[in-house]
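Milestone 3.1: sequence recovery, worked example.
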């Protein structure tokens, strides 16, 4: 059974909501005064912000469930070409984004950013790798076997962290196997420094469990296409979500939920929450036909990667250009938003920045321009 057009509305809204909130949490006016729920958990634990990125991966898988049947009609060379091309382009865009604008200010002069210290892994890179691996698994094994392989991967990742991390410190910032592999593979100078030490929360090893977010999204998308808009399908979707939450809370006792390590319990938790959120959207949009509010998020959902990249590049440029002794980003926050209050001002800055990105997406949508990779 094929889904109705409304199903695509639910998917666009779900994907658009993730992009919208990604921009909000990534561009606060002042990170030090951001509201607590808009921060990532410092290490073990979970906040609403930690749901955003895995939800995007889930949406990638969900969208793949609509595209894969068309790919099956092509020959193997064409399919592999499309998968590898998309993986490479998204990975390259992520890499170039961290290198951009290729120069920085140093004692009032522009100095070239050396390639030797450019971050290798990151958000877009994880999207690229998780998509590429999941697409290959689904293409060659079918979605059921791909999902089984992904679940096995969750247990394998748990074992790898325990075996190759520092004894007694396998799940710590300094002793985890993700850090050890990344340091050996690309060197500490190519890792993210946001924790104060070289450590990349989007490291290569922790991409293994992230693949399950994509394959789970594919499985749910396929399930909804086959089941259609019925209360039975909705009940099953919500039940799956609740069962995964129960698994997560039990697993957390021995393998803590941790976004920066992307632990297996984190995967089951986020997939469970995504099933529940998507179920709510399907109920409201598909079954109650309440769609008047959806266009705002559909704008984000129709050009998700482009708008996300635009938001990151826009923030980078605002940090790069100077107004006196401070960046344009900081000057805008101080003069327009900080007088409203530290926390409120920081939040409103993020909202305003997000709305600027939305406006670009709105203009593209009106012109029927959809950037595809």
């Amino acid at each position: 059974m094929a889904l109705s057009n409304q199903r695509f509305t639910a998917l666009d809204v779900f994907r658009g909501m993730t992009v919208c909130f990604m921009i909000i949490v990534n561009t606060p006016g002042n990170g030090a005064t951001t509201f607590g729920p808009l921060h990532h958990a410092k290490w073990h634990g979970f906040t609403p912000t930690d749901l955003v990125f895995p939800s995007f991966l889930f949406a990638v898988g969900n969208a793949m469930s609509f595209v894969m049947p068309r790919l099956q009609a092509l020959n193997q060379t064409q399919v592999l070409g499309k998968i590898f091309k998309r993986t490479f382009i998204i990975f390259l865009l992520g890499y170039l984004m961290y290198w951009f604008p290729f120069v920085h200010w140093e004692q009032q002069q522009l100095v070239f950013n050396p390639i030797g210290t450019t971050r290798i892994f990151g958000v877009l890179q994880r999207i690229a790798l998780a998509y590429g691996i999941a697409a290959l698994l689904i293409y060659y094994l079918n979605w059921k076997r791909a999902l089984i392989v992904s679940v096995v991967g969750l247990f394998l990742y748990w074992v790898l962290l325990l075996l190759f991390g520092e004894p007694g410190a396998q799940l710590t910032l300094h002793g985890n196997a993700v850090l050890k592999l990344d340091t050996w593979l690309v060197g500490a100078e190519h890792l993210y420094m946001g924790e104060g030490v070289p450590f990349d929360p989007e490291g290569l090893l922790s991409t293994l469990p992230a693949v399950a977010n994509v394959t789970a999204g594919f499985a749910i998308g396929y399930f909804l296409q086959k089941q259609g808009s019925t209360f039975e399908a909705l009940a099953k979707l919500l039940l799956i979500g609740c069962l995964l939450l129960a698994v997560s809370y039990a697993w957390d006792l021995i393998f803590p939920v941790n976004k920066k390590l992307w632990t297996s319990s984190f995967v089951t938790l986020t997939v469970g929450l995504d099933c529940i959120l998507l179920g709510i959207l399907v109920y409201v949009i598909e079954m109650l036909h309440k769609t008047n509010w959806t266009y705002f998020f559909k704008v984000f959902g129709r050009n998700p990667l482009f708008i996300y990249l635009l938001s990151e590049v826009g923030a980078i440029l605002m940090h790069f250009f100077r107004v006196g002794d401070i960046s344009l980003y900081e000057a805008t926050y101080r003069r327009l938003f900080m007088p409203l209050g530290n926390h409120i001002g920081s939040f409103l800055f993020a909202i305003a920045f997000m709305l600027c990105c939305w406006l670009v997406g709105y203009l593209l949508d009106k012109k029927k321009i959809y950037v595809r990779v």
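Strands lie at 103-106, 109-112, 322-323, 326-327. Residues 1-6 have pLDDT under 50 and may be disordered.
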